[in-house]
Amino acid sequence: xxxxxxxxxxxxxxxxxxxxxxxxxxxxxxxxxxxxxxxxxxxxxxxxxxxxxxxxxxxxxxxxxxxxxxxxxxxxxxxxxxxxxxxxxxxxxxxxxxxxxxxxxxxxxxxxxxxxxxxxxxxxxxxxxxxxxxxxxxxxxxxxxxxxxxxxxxxxxxxxxxxxxxxxxxxxxxxxxxxxxxxxxxxxxxxxxxxxxxxxxxxxxxxxxxxxxxxxxxxxxxxxxxxxxxxxxxxxxxxxxxxxxxxxxxxxx
Length: 253
Ligand code: NDP
Ligand code: 8X3
Prior knowledge:
This protein has helices spanning 13-24, 36-49, 64-71, 76-79, 102-130, 151-170, 190-194, 199-204, 214-224, and strands at residues 4-7, 28-33, 54-58, 83-86, 133-138, 176-183, 186-187, 212-213, 235-238. By secondary structure, the chain is an alpha/beta fold.
């Protein structure tokens, strides 16, 4: 029987690349996100290209009742989820704290922190019942260091770092693995979202060096699931070779 992976935020970037890689490896996939058209297109592509089944669930992770209603009513064929990838997330705005738009803060905290918690809280009891499961939380180097204008985004990813540790402690002995993958800069729609659609500003983030690609992160998410049952990657910080940490990037131009 095919294993099952649920990926939040599969309509773009890391989530979409992760869905494709798990599909190539014979998983049945639950893809989620807010953009229904993209979800339907991805479902069609994955089912067409691979001999697998895909369930697409359109919901906003910030909306607790939408999350609960979608995830508590998963059809039986998809309900025994082996791997949960908590990937949906965003940076919104890039301002000094004294000038920031409070709506941006709400967006980041509600998505990156509360959304991840709503999804996890709904799915963990089933994993405990089945005595197995793997939760992979997408953190960030922003969850390890705080940089200028990163304030609330960094706080939200520090929260992911802490929640991941807390999950691993609380779930000890249940058979569930908990992993955080904490990437540095990768070129996806991330910066366009952060700069509220300003493509020029988004492009400049990656000027003069080669950032990671979504597929790089997907390969690590998948790799974490291939280890023997007694091994768990707890925390994996990854950057391109051009980046040392949040502060040092080797730009050639
Ligand atoms: P993208 O913007 O390319 O993709 C983000 C995904 O998250 C989309 O599928 C989007 O779907 C989904 N999403 C956002 N908000 C919501 C919401 N409220 N409800 C449901 N889904 C939502 O960004 P990335 O792929 O780069 O980012 C993925 C994760 O990786 C994020 O958590 C980000 O913080 C993290 N990260 C990114 C890095 C980077 O440099 N790119 C580095 C380190 C971490 P939709 O809009 O359809 O809802
Ligand atoms: C995304 C990477 O450097 O923009 O989490 O914080 S960074």
